[in-house]
Amino acid sequence: MKVYDLLELAGRNLRESLLRSGLTTAGVSIGVASLVAMLSLGTGLQDLTNRRLSRSGFFDTVFVTSLRDIDEDDPDQSKGDVSKARPLDDTVRKDLEKIPNVREAEPEVRFMSEVRYGDATHAAFVAGLPPSDRDNESFEGMKGRFFSSPHAQEAIVPIDFAKDLNQKDPNSVVGRDLVLRYAERQPLAASSSSQAGMSNSSGFSVVHKEQKVKIVGIVDQEPFGGMRSISWARVFIPTDLANDLNMMQYSDLRGVAGEAAGGKTYRALIVRVASAGKVQAVQDAIKKLGFRTYSILDATKEFRRFFAILDLFLGIFGSLALAVASLAIVNTLVMAVLERRREIGIMKALGASDADVRNLFFVEAGAMGLVGGIFGVLLGWSIGRLINFGTNIWLHRRNLPPETIWSSPLWLIGAAITFSIVVSLAAGLYPAARASKMDPVQALRYE
């Protein structure tokens, strides 16, 4: 039997039993819609997580610390002579910037300061932000603007601290001045160091200083989602300005009793990588230099495993409705075999082979799977749009930004339609085999 004749005959048979075939196809559509809805939800949530992390700048960032620093979560910190470990200084910073695919290496600056605003004084942590943080999602909806230059005498404050400065009108602090009182680190000459009783060839003294900065912006949320130590600051200034002021930091106090008392060191360096795909190679290169590294990719391994398991279970539950629909296909085709016994007998009497009869029922089952899959994808996509629309209304009422929690990529649409056809063909195995084995003599005698 020719392919065209096979398709035409299958189409005629489906049209003659339009109600039954339509209901069966509708069942397949609902099954495919549930499958698409479940997997689209899992894919959308995963995309939302990846999008948020990507915009936060974590995916292309490596945090570098010295082996001298105590890390309670590192089981290997007690192994080896940490006194031989290199401290994080400007020399190390330049070495890190020479690693392939590294865009920049900036120190993580955070220190305690007294902040004077008008006649009031507040105790607050001050942190440095490099120019590359301008693209961080935390600063997208800020009131005001980002720093005008890396050395600008400007500051950005969180909304909570702005309320402390002016409870009646927090936004009015933009354009006003803050005075930072801080401890400046000044190096000592060798002779002064000796007179002070220090065994090192150099050291430093602490001098109280003040720096006036202008508030240029207010952020509504903690930068970097509160996942970095500088996120806990109340005042943010350019990192280069903090380096120009030579503010004393925790790492300086740590080095007073050590061999590096005269050198300026950092507690951590933040390395920006050209792309997220190069992070692992950069981490390996930094570890070879003798430093401890951490990146968000180390944490996202568990996220990827979680979403893989979530997608598996959502796919299983979504497939249950399609499995029920496959039973409807079996029922429809079995009834078709019983109703079309004489037709099958005539076909075989005219020379149709068992394979022709079997293929006819396969085509009918595949057609219901194809049509049901297409309409199921459209139905699932519509459900997703409706849920996403309702979710954004709910977020808007709570003054939250809109989000896309539903994603139906092309691979999911193609896979859903293909799966629908495969399940339908599998459901047609028994009816097709039963029809092909029918005795034509007995079939012609059937009334």
Report the biggest beta sheet as strand number plus sense, adding barrel if it closes. Answer: 7 strands, mixed
Count the strands? 11
Beta content comes to 15-25%
H/I helix tally: 14
- Note the overall shape: elongated
| Succession of helices and strands | HHEHEEEEEHEHEEHHEHEHHHHHH
Radius of gyration: 35 Å
Please, could you describe this protein's structure?
The protein has two domains: 3-54 and 303-444, no CATH class; 61-295, no CATH class. The chain is 50% helix and 18% strand. The longest helix is centred in the last third of the chain and has 44 residues, at 296-339. The chain has 14 helices and eleven strands. It has helices spanning 3-16, 18-55, 90-97, 159-165, 190-195, 239-245, 250-254, 279-288, 296-339, 341-349, 354-397, 410-427, 429-436, 440-444, and strands at 61-66, 102-107, 110-117, 120-129, 143-144, 154-158, 177-188, 203-219, 235-238, 269-273, 291-295. With 447 residues, the chain is of the alpha+beta class.
Provide key terms for this protein:
447 residues, alpha+beta, 4-stranded antiparallel beta sheet, 50% helix, elongated
